[in-house]
Design a protein that fits this description.
With about 350 residues, the chain is an alpha/beta fold. It contains eleven helices and 14 strands. The longest helix has 25 residues.
Length: about 350
């Protein structure tokens, strides 16, 4: 497994486990505003899908990306991709507030859409996407990479769903990120465009908490955002937190921040703690401080054993193969549409509550 100094360019690579024959599933890319598109493309190709087209208005950026995937053609307009019947899916990493509009165009053209998180910046966008899914029958899937493209977190989720620690009572996620302020584009610091810290990187955490607890909805008890340490970027939120009670009774909390210190060997020392009726799990997602090899690990203690599972070398990420097969066969094994939209909805509502509270105290 590889890590990057900042989450923006995180691409863990992974094993090649093809679920389709060569050339059987073709996809295109549209809008390369966030570097997550690299990890998204790599993961789809590792599952056997084949990139055919790249559309990006910035020609220099498009050509640079093509060097990583030289078999793909750079096209000058989105319609070239949308009109090609061989294309089954369009993946994109547009500026967050533009992701929904792109998805609506993709679905209207009869293609499935796979977008970087956050999938929306407003609840109105979410409702328009829900309606488009109902009317077109297409998928609006989301790259929640902090579970789907992180082997320890994915594994912990599967343990929880299998009953390894009994019924999940509580889950806590701590998600520090490295700001890398000087490497970020202008839109990253504009609230209307990135949506807020809970809407943006917080969406990962809401997705994890829904999956880990097996819940389908949640009530938000408390939500907060702050700009503690970046007065030169007044619209940036460098800290966010939310407490929720899930609809099955589980208690959940997440903290998101941009305070990863320079000496950290990865962009964020993400941690996940899960308490069940018959045991508990700790996940050290990207590194394990205090150990020279810094291998990500999952620790499990239940009534039968105390174990550590270490994640060394390239990992298999099952979600992407399942997603390709879902798009091919019109199934919902990788992730249901309801789950993807509910994770987005909770992040948007948490952001709305935090924004309202902040306005009252400012």
């Amino acid at each position: 497994m590889t890590t990057a100094s900042d989450g923006m360019s995180y691409n863990p690579g992974g094993q090649n486990v093809h679920v389709v024959e060569p050339g059987e599933f073709m996809f295109g890319l549209a809008c390369l505003d966030h570097a997550h598109i690299d990890g998204m493309t790599t993961a789809l190709e590792n599952a056997g899908a084949r990139l055919k087209y790249i559309f990006e208005p910035n020609a220099e950026k498009a050509q640079a990306f093509q060097q990583k995937f030289p078999h793909a053609s750079v096209v000058e307009n989105l319609d070239t991709i949308l009109s090609d019947e061989a294309i089954r899916c369009v993946a994109g990493a547009a500026i967050p507030n533009l992701r929904c509009d792109l998805g609506l165009k993709v679905m209207a053209a009869g293609k499935d859409y796979f977008t970087d998180k956050a999938p929306f910046t407003t609840l109105e966008q979410l409702e328009s996407a829900r309606e488009a899914v109902r009317t077109t029958g297409q998928k609006y899937m989301v790259y929640f990479s902090e579970r789907l493209h992180n082997a320890p977190t994915y594994y912990a989720g599967e343990l929880c769903r299998s009953g390894k620690i009994g019924r999940v009572l509580q889950a806590l996620v701590m998600a520090p990120h490295r700001l890398s302020k000087g490497n970020r584009p202008d839109w990253f610091f504009e609230k209307e465009r990135y949506g807020g810290i809970l809407t943006d990187i917080g969406s990962h955490q809401f997705e994890q908490l829904l999956h880990i607890t097996g819940a389908s909805d949640a009530a938000i008890n408390f939500s907060r955002v702050e700009n503690f340490s970046n007065p030169d970027k007044p619209e940036l939120e460098d800290f966010g937190e939310t407490s929720m009670t899930m609809d099955n009774g589980a208690s959940c909390y997440c903290r998101i921040d941009w305070f990863t210190p320079d000496a950290a060997r990865a962009w964020g020392d993400g941690r996940l703690f899960i308490l069940g009726t018959e045991g508990y799990i700790e996940v050290r997602k990207h590194l394990d401080i205090g150990r020279p090899d810094s291998v990500p690990s999952v620790f499990v203690v239940n009534n039968d054993e105390e174990t550590e599972t270490r994640f060394e070398g390239p990992q298999h990420f099952p979600f992407f193969g399942d997603l390709v097969l879902d798009m091919k066969n019109r199934t919902e094994n990788a992730m249901t549409q309801d789950h993807a939209f509910k994770a987005a909805e909770l992040s948007l509502k948490a952001q709305e509550i935090a924004d309202s509270a902040r306005c009252k105290t400012s």
